[in-house]
């Protein structure tokens, strides 16, 4: 105290100004040094790309948050690949590669590939598998869930999916079929996907399909959360700080968050019940919920702590709703917009499903080539996660003449892959035919290898089989039983405008809507 008062008198205004000037100058000096380092000294300095992006993160921040409403950096990346070639530096630390033959190297099954630090807090659930950065921790966490979401278990659970479909169709018949009342496909399939995943993972139904007009506050809250996702990517400190605020306070400050807060409480309740059942030895059906599955696994005790399990539960539900909804809606839109496609799908489904009220097993639907081609093509044009998901490899990677330093964040993405015109000519058009007769890429590999919508390698989507089953059953039943007509809906309602932790259409879109008639009308 004596020291500070004897050296500088902060009561003197000129000294206070001097302090401000010193702090600002130090900050400017730091920024200038950083820019010089990024441009000339960094191990990535030699890689091609725009100097502004290499100099500072602020360039990405501007395109991600401000320019044309934000979420538009993916278009810049495409533009730069045209100009600078297949490997570019897209910010001071990260490289992006556009080469359909190289993405399997980036996203390989290798055990020692990490995600990057900003992915940990992106969804505010850092201990869930999708947010786990370290490969070894991720592997341990994912292992016990693999069989729970395996193809065999999904097939076993098909009757539960069909039961949710019946609920959905009953409501459609009562409130929409034959009426001049359009239904918003995003709202409809959000509720459906939410009901399916909660029943599947928690062994419990929450009747999301019962909400008026299919507007479910929980899905709306999750969608709102995702809209703010770019802020979390650009400023990872924000979600970290928000986590320190109790949920009740956040709900008061932002009432739209309340459904997420009460959902988290419900997840804690389920976990407590499962732990109590396990403690008194009465757990019988080990595959009823992901929590019984995890608690019966050989995960260490630290991994079974209630807060960690809550984050895993929320992650599984969160990962399943918007993604499955969006792919299903995109597929419906494109089929409806192409009368020839619609006719062909119907012919195939009518033949395979003679009684519209009785769906065949998934294995039969999967044998319908044109129907499955429509699904694959719709998945291609719905892009899956969309947001970049970089990886860090422990050893240097070689790409053409470039040596990529070890642990450099490196990525490609579904937008880049799915619009590679050499692999998918006329890539913006919906052309199911491209998937018929076991098609190959110019290099002779199966075309489906170039689909990145579910991710690849060790981090591949956990719920892929469930997502396919939901899409196959719901689309087959929908097109078999109903006549749908697009209502004030165009490609503007479907095409990606921005990346808001998922493919997001133009902000003016009111959402894709349809009018529904029964096919027997
Ligand atoms: C059409 C539907 C779906 C699409 C397009 C999709 C897409 C994706 C993508 C791209 C990833 C990888 C993200 C990354 O690399 O960081 C992923 C991971 C994940 N998905 Fe899905 N998903 C879908 C449905 C589901 C469903 C139904 C579930 C329910 C279980 C689910 C659960 C997960 C989980 C838990 C992860 C993290 C996996 C890991 O990190 O190992 N997804 N998904």
UniProtKB/TrEMBL annotation:
Keywords from the named record: Heme, Iron, Metal-binding, Monooxygenase, Oxidoreductase
InterPro entries, per database record: Cyt_P450 (IPR001128), Cyt_P450_CS (IPR017972), Cyt_P450_E_grp-I (IPR002401), Cyt_P450_sf (IPR036396), Cytochrome_P450_monoxygenase (IPR050121)
Cofactor: heme
Pfam families tied to this protein: p450
Residues annotated for heme binding in this entry: 461
Alphabetized GO MF terms: heme binding; iron ion binding; monooxygenase activity; oxidoreductase activity, acting on paired donors, with incorporation or reduction of molecular oxygen
Organism domain of life: Eukaryota
Annotated region described as Disordered, given as residue ranges: 497-521
Signal peptide: none
Family the UniProt entry places it in: Belongs to the cytochrome P450 family.
The protein's name in its UniProt record: Cytochrome P450
